[in-house]
Amino acid sequence: LVLKVPEGSEAERAGLRGSMRDSEGSVVIGDVIVECDGRSVGSEADLFKALDTHAPGDVVKVKVLRSKPNAGQAALGAIVDGSSGGDSFINTKDLEEKMLSIKLSAVDVAGPAPGSGGGALPPTPAPGLAPAPPRGGR
Predict the structure, then answer these.
(1) Burial zone of 41 (CB within 10 Å; 0-12 exposed, 13-18 middle, 19+ buried)
(2) Quick one: which of 87, 98, 121, 133 has the most CB atoms within 10 Å?
(3) Are 25 and 120 in contact (CB under 8 A)?
(4) Confidence of residue 39 (pLDDT cuts 50, 70, 90)
(5) Positive or negative CA dihedral for 6, 53, 31, 21?
(6) DSSP codes of every residue in 55-75
(7) pTM here?
(8) How far apart are CA 60 and CA 112, in angstroms?
(9) Is residue 80 within a helix (H) or strand (E), and if so which, with residue range?
(10) How far out from the chain centre does Cα 135 lie?
């Protein structure tokens, strides 16, 4: 689940959507990453493994699920919280798949300098936010 997409980031330019609150204060679930460069993504660890061989500047293909406009969020929510029970009762007509090309960018995962007043990165990175290891893996 994509929690936040920073303004002006490569991920935002590619169309990745983060979770947010609507005008009534209800949570609107962001994109759910299900594939990265042809590799299935079922967890944060899967996403990092898929990104492991990439470096800043590389472009990755990411498949996401998102709720269709004017559709309820129940189906996407069931996938996110794992209550889909094998997907047998999910109304997939309310979901759409999108394939996005996202250019990876480097991120300072150490956070801001002490005393700078800045905050830390969110604990669940998404493409465009994830630190990229040197080419060839760790």
Answers:
(1) buried
(2) 121
(3) no
(4) very high
(5) negative
(6) -TT-EEEEEEEEEPTT--SHH
(7) 0.64
(8) 27
(9) helix 74-81
(10) 22
